[in-house]
C-alpha cells in the first residue's frame, strides 16, 4: 500500500479502487484495549453479549502492533500520559484514536482541581473521534465507532493530494 | 398557635425523643411540622446538657464497659492506660472522648504496647489520615485503631509541627503502615522516621510539592505537558 | 530477571504496574507501582460542597458506586444526627445489595477471563446487564448513579419496581448453580486456583485486609453484622467464610467461592427487604436545606463488595469539608500481593491478583 499511496491523479478507476480500499479498511478495525477507569467498564460491556462489538468487526487486541484503533477509555493522568504517548508511537500506521468519555476529551469532572489529571488526551496524541459522556452509553460508543468508520471510508489513500 | 396544634406538636416531640421520627415527619401542615422539628432540636439539646454531667462521671468509673457503636469511654479509658504505662506522653488538655492526643517521641513503643498487651490487642490499623490544620498549628497525623478480638475502636492524634514534620514510623508494628505512611508522605511531606523505603506512592517520583497541604500551588508543566486547567495553543 | 507487567495489560484490572523479579519462571519479589489513576479526589472534596462530593465518591470504586455513596451518607448522617424515613432506609439497602451482586458478577467474570475462561465472562455480563437495567429504570444511569444523598435518595422507586426485582431474583438464583457448574467446580479452574496464594489470617489482619479476602481466610468479619449501620440488623443472612473445601483455607478458590456465596446471601436480604418495604413515604422529606455539619470529625466504616470502606470526614462548620479521606479496601488488599505470591509462577501471580478483586480507581483515588 505504501508504494501506491498518493501517486495517482483523480480518475474513475482510482476513485472506485479508493472506495474498495476504504470499505476494506474500515469494516474491521481492531481496537487496542486501553481501558483506564470507569469508561473501561462500559467498553467491556460494549464488547460483551448485549451490545456486541464483534458484529461490527472489532475485537480487542492487547498488543499495540496488532491494533488499528486506540480507544482511550478513562482519565489519563500525568504519570500515565508518558506511557500513552509511547504506546501510540508503537502502533503501526494507519492508526486512529478515539477519546472515550469526558475525562479523555477534556479532563472530565476533574478539570478544576485535578493537579495530576491530563486535561484531555489530545494534549499528547492526535484524536480522531471524541465520544462524550460520563460514562458514555455503549450505544454512544458504537456510534463513535461508526463515525470513525465513515471517516476512514472518506480517506482517499491512492489519490495524489494536490495542495 | 391553637391548643390542638400545640398538643399535636408536644405528642410528636415526645414520640420522636423515644426514637419514632415518623410522628414528626407525618404532620401534614408545613408550618406545624417545622415548629415540631425546632422544638425537637431544643428538647434534645436540653436533654444532652442535663445528662452530660452525671453520665460522664458514671462512664469514667466503669472500666471495661460494654462496647457501644459511638465509642466515648474507650478513648478515655485507653488514654488512662497509656498514661499509666508511658507517663508524660498523653496530652490531657487536648484528649477527649473522641480521641487521644499523644506526643510523638515514644509513639513506636506505645504502638507496640497497644498491639501486644492482652487488655488492648489493637491488631488492626484501620486508617492513617494526615491533616493540615493551618499555619499556626501545623500538620497532624490521625490513626484509627481497631481490635478484632475485643472489638473496641480508638483514635490517636499526633501533632508533628509545620516545618520539617517528623513522626516515628509504625510499619514494623502493623504491616499496612508501610503503604499508609507512604501515602501520607506523598500528600503532605511528613517524614516517617524508621520507614524502610519512604518514597512517593501515588504521584510520580519527580513531582514537586505536597498536594494536600493548604498552601499547595500546582506546577506549570510536567515533562512539557500543561498541568493547570487553562489550555493555551488550541489547534 | 526483572519483568514489568503493565500499566497497560489486559488482566491488571486497571492501570497497575507490577515490577516482578523472577528466577526463571518462579517469582521472588513483586513491587506494585500504583498512582496511574490518581485523580485528586481528596483535593476536589476540599473544594466542593458536601452534596457535590457524592458524584466524586461514585467514581472512586466505579463498579460499586451505590455502596460508595452509602458509606459517605451513613458517615455524614451520623455526623449531623439526621434520621431518615423508613422507606429511604429500605431503598438504600435494596440498591446496595443489588450493586453488590453486580460487582461480584463483574469480579467473577473477569477472574474467569484472567484464568482463561471466556464463557463465564459473557454469561455474567448478560446477567449484570439486567441489574443495570433496574438501576436505569430508577435513576437513569447505568454505571455512576449519584443516587444516595445526605438525608434521602435522589429518585423514588418507579411504578413496577418491586415486580421487576422479584422477576430478576427468580431468574438469577438458578443461574448461580449454572456458574458453579461452568466455573467453580471446573477441574481446570480448581487446578489453577486451589492452594495458590494462601493468605493466613494473622497476616491478613496485620495488612488490614477485609471483606471477602479476609473471609476467605476463615475470619468471620462483616461490618453489616459486627458494626451494623442502617437497618441491616433486621435482616437474617449468613456470613460465608472460606473453609478450604478444595484446597487450603485462604487460597484463591476460597476467595472466589466466598463471593459466589455472598451473591446468594444478598438475594436473601433483597427478598426480605422487598417484602417489608413501606409503600408510602416521601424520600426527600429529611433532605437538609443546607448541609453545614457541626464542627468535629467522624470515621465510619461500611461494607462495600471489596471490604471495609471507611470515610474520615473533618468538618469545620462550613459547607465544604475541611478534610475528607476515603480508606479504600482495595488499597490494603493490593499491599498483601507481595506476601502471598512469592514462590509461585508468573501465571499464578495473575490468578492471585484476580482473586483479590482490586479496582484501581479506589486505590489511587
Give an overview of the whole structure:
The complex is a heterotrimer of chains A (163), B (235) and C (365). Chain A has helices at residues 12-26, 38-47, 78-90, 101-106, 138-153, and strands at residues 31-35, 60-61, 69-73, 96-100, 129-131. By secondary structure, chain A is of the alpha/beta class. Chain A has a five-stranded parallel sheet. In chain A, helix 2 (38-47) packs across helix 5 (138-153). Chain A is globular and about 55 Å long. The two termini of chain A are 22 Å apart. With 235 residues, chain B is an alpha/beta fold. In chain B, the strands form three sheets. Chain B has a four-stranded mixed sheet. A two-stranded parallel sheet of chain B has the order 5-6. In chain B, helix 1 packs parallel to helix 3. Residues 52-68 of chain B have low confidence and may be disordered. Chain C is an alpha+beta fold. Chain C has a single domain (2-364), classed as Cytochrome-c3 Hydrogenase, chain B. In chain C, 48% of the residues lie in helices and 13% in strands. Chain C has 15 helices and eight strands. In chain C, strand 4 and strand 5 (152-153) form a beta hairpin. In chain C, helix 4 packs antiparallel against helix 14 and helix 5 runs antiparallel to helix 6 (161-184). The longest helix of chain C is centred in the N-terminal third of the chain and has 30 residues, at 86-115. The two termini of chain C are 32 Å apart. The mean pLDDT of chain C is 90. The interface between A and B is medium-sized, with 14 and 14 residues.
Question: Helix and strand layout, with pairings?
Answer:
The complex is a heterotrimer of chains A (163), B (235) and C (365).
Chain A: H1 12-26, E1 31-35, H2 38-47, E2 60-61, E3 69-73, H3 78-90, E4 96-100, H4 101-106, E5 129-131, H5 138-153
Parallel strand pairs in A: 1-2, 1-3, 3-4, 4-5
Helix pairs in contact in A: 1-5, 2-5
Chain B: H1 3-17, H2 22-25, H3 30-61, H4 73-85, E1 100-102, H5 107-116, E2 124-132, E3 139-146, E4 153-161, E5 166-168, H6 177-188, E6 191-193, E7 221-222, E8 225-226
Parallel strand pairs in B: 1-4, 5-6
Antiparallel strand pairs in B: 2-3, 3-4, 7-8
Helix pairs in contact in B: 1-3
Chain C: E1 2-5, E2 17-23, E3 26-33, H1 41-46, H2 53-58, H3 65-80, H4 86-115, H5 119-139, E4 148-149, E5 152-153, H6 161-184, H7 187-193, H8 201-206, H9 212-215, H10 223-226, H11 252-276, E6 296-304, E7 307-315, E8 323-327, H12 329-335, H13 337-341, H14 346-356, H15 360-364
Antiparallel strand pairs in C: 1-2, 2-3, 4-5, 6-7, 7-8
Helix pairs in contact in C: 3-4, 4-5, 4-11, 4-14, 5-6, 6-11, 11-14
Amino acid at each position: 500500500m505504501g508504494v501506491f499511496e498518493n501517486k495517482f491523479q483523480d480518475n474513475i478507476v482510482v476513485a472506485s479502487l479508493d472506495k474498495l480500499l476504504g470499505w476494506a479498511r474500515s469494516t474491521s478495525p481492531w481496537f487496542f484495549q486501553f481501558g483506564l477507569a470507569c469508561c473501561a467498564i462500559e467498553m467491556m460491556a460494549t464488547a460483551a453479549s448485549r451490545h456486541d462489538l464483534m458484529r461490527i468487526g472489532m475485537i480487542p487486541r492487547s498488543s499495540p502492533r496488532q491494533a488499528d484503533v486506540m480507544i482511550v477509555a478513562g482519565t489519563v493522568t500525568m504519570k500515565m500520559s508518558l506511557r500513552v504517548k509511547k504506546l501510540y508511537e508503537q502502533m503501526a500506521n494507519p492508526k486512529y484514536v478515539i477519546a472515550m468519555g469526558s475525562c479523555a476529551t477534556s479532563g472530565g469532572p476533574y478539570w478544576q482541581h485535578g493537579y495530576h489529571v491530563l486535561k484531555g488526551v489530545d494534549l499528547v496524541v492526535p484524536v480522531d473521534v471524541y465520544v462524550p459522556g460520563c460514562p458514555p452509553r455503549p450505544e454512544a460508543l458504537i456510534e463513535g465507532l461508526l463515525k470513525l468508520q465513515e471517516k476512514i471510508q472518506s480517506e482517499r489513500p491512492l489519490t495524489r493530494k494536490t495542495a | 398557635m391553637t391548643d390542638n396544634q400545640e398538643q399535636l406538636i408536644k405528642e410528636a416531640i415526645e414520640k420522636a425523643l423515644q426514637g419514632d421520627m415518623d410522628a414528626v415527619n407525618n404532620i401534614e401542615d408545613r408550618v406545624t411540622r417545622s415548629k415540631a422539628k425546632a422544638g425537637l432540636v431544643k428538647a434534645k439539646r436540653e436533654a444532652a446538657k442535663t445528662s452530660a454531667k452525671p453520665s460522664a462521671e458514671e462512664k469514667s468509673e466503669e472500666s471495661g464497659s460494654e462496647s457501644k457503636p459511638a465509642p466515648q469511654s474507650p478513648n478515655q479509658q485507653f488514654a488512662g492506660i497509656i498514661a499509666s504505662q508511658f507517663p508524660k506522653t498523653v496530652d490531657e488538655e487536648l484528649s477527649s472522648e473522641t480521641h487521644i492526643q499523644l506526643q510523638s517521641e515514644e509513639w513506636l513503643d506505645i504502638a507496640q504496647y497497644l498491639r501486644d498487651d492482652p487488655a488492648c490487642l489493637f491488631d488492626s490499623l484501620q486508617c492513617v489520615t494526615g491533616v493540615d490544620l493551618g499555619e499556626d498549628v501545623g500538620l497532624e497525623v490521625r490513626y484509627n485503631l481497631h481490635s478484632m478480638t475485643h472489638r473496641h475502636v480508638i483514635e490517636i492524634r499526633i501533632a508533628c509541627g509545620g516545618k520539617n514534620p517528623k513522626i516515628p514510623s509504625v510499619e514494623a508494628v502493623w504491616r499496612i503502615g508501610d503503604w499508609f505512611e507512604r501515602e501520607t508522605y506523598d500528600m503532605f511531606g511528613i517524614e516517617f522516621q524508621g520507614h524502610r523505603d519512604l518514597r512517593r506512592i501515588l504521584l510520580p517520583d519527580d513531582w514537586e510539592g505536597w498536594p494536600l497541604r493548604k498552601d499547595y500551588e500546582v506546577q506549570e508543566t510536567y515533562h512539557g505537558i500543561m498541568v493547570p486547567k487553562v489550555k493555551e495553543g488550541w489547534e | 530477571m526483572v519483568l514489568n507487567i503493565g500499566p497497560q495489560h489486559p488482566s491488571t484490572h486497571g492501570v497497575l504496574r507490577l515490577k516482578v523479579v523472577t528466577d526463571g519462571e518462579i517469582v521472588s519479589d513483586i513491587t506494585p507501582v500504583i498512582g496511574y489513576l490518581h485523580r485528586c479526589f481528596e483535593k476536589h472534596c476540599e473544594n466542593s460542597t458536601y452534596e457535590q462530593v457524592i458524584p466524586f465518591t461514585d467514581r472512586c470504586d466505579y463498579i460499586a458506586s451505590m455502596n460508595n455513596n452509602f458509606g459517605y451518607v451513613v458517615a455524614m448522617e451520623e455526623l449531623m444526627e439526621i434520621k431518615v424515613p423508613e422507606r429511604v432506609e429500605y431503598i438504600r439497602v435494596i440498591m446496595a445489595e443489588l450493586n453488590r451482586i453486580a460487582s461480584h458478577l463483574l469480579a467473577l467474570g473477569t477472574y474467569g477471563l484472567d484464568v482463561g475462561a471466556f464463557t463465564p465472562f459473557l454469561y455474567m455480563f448478560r446477567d449484570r446487564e439486567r441489574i443495570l437495567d433496574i438501576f436505569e429504570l430508577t435513576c437513569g444511569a447505568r454505571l455512576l448513579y449519584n443516587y444516595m444523598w445526605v438525608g434521602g435518595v435522589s429518585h423514588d422507586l418507579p411504578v413496577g419496581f418491586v415486580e421487576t426485582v422479584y422477576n430478576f431474583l427468580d431468574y438469577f438464583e438458578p443461574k448461580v448453580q449454572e456458574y458453579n457448574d461452568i466455573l467453580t467446580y471446573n477441574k481446570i479452574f480448581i487446578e489453577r486456583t486451589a492452594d495458590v496464594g494462601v493468605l493466613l489470617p494473622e497476616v491478613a489482619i496485620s495488612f488490614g485486609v477485609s471483606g471477602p479476602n479476609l473471609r476467605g481466610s476463615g475470619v468471620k468479619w462483616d461490618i453489616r453484622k459486627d458494626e451494623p449501620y442502617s437497618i441491616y440488623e433486621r435482616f437474617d443472612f449468613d456470613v460465608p467464610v472460606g473453609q478450604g473445601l478444595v484446597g487450603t483455607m485462604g487460597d484463591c478458590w476460597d476467595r472466589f467461592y466466598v463471593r459466589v456465596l455472598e451473591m446468594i446471601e444478598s438475594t436473601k436480604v433483597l427478598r426480605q427487604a422487598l417484602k417489608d418495604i413501606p409503600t408510602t413515604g416521601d424520600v426527600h422529606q429529611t433532605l437538609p436545606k443546607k448541609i453545614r455539619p457541626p464542627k468535629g470529625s467522624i470515621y465510619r466504616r461500611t461494607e462495600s463488595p471489596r471490604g471495609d470502606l471507611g470515610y474520615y470526614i473533618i468538618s469545620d462548620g462550613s459547607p465544604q469539608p475541611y478534610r475528607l479521606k476515603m480508606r479504600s479496601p482495595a488499597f490494603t488488599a493490593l499491599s498483601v500481593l507481595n506476601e502471598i505470591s512469592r514462590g509461585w509462577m508468573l501465571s499464578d501471580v495473575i490468578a492471585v491478583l484476580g482473586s483479590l478483586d482490586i479496582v484501581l480507581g479506589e486505590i489511587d483515588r
